[in-house]
Write a structure and sequence with these properties.
Helices cover 38% and strands 15% of the residues. It is an alpha/beta fold. It is globular. The chain starts with 9 loop residues before the first strand and ends in a 17-residue tail after the last helix.
Length: 162
């Protein structure tokens, strides 16, 4: 994918911290993305995806958040619970730590990547490039059956910004 393709992307950033939302928004804009929506949790993201007038090409979501974490959002998308988003849309999770159990669940739901903070514009560009280039055959039955943790993990991740 050439960098010029970023200009046509429609992205959704999901995080419960305004500073992180703004930082990732600024990085995407520096890459050429102009259609960017934000949500503060998974529940709000699902609502925005249902109301979107055009398909969202790439979802960037924090892993652990209250009111719908990133894995719950990923499962909802992969299971076809959103009207305006393809089940194989590029989905990249981010977190301050690499939680091996969460990464395993994300892989089972065909996430396109998990970024460990700090997130840089170059990390973001590479993740979107490789995620958008990766094809997989959607398996709705497997996604629906995949167990996903609710809320935050027992040992909540540290609250860091990009």
């Amino acid at each position: 994918m050439e960098d010029s393709v970023f200009k046509r992307l429609h992205c959704l950033i999901v995080d419960d911290h305004t500073k992180t939302l703004r930082s990732i928004d600024a990085m995407l804009r520096a890459l050429g993305v102009s259609r960017i929506a934000t949500a503060r949790n998974g529940a709000e993201a699902l609502m925005k995806l249902d109301l979107a007038k055009s398909a969202v090409d790439c979802i960037l979501s924090r892993l652990w958040m209250p009111e719908g974490n990133g894995l719950q959002l990923l499962k909802a998308i992969r299971s076809g619970q959103t009207r305006s988003t393809r089940v194989d849309a590029c989905f990249i999770l981010f977190s301050p730590t690499a939680d091996p159990d969460a990464v395993k669940v994300a892989a089972g739901l065909d996430a396109h990547g998990v970024l460990v903070k700090p997130i840089t514009a170059e990390k973001l560009r590479r993740a979107i490039h490789s995620g958008r280039a990766r094809y997989f055959a959607a398996d709705m039955a497997r996604y629906t059956a995949q167990a996903v943790p609710q809320g935050r993990p027992p040992t909540a991740e540290p609250r860091t910004h990009v």
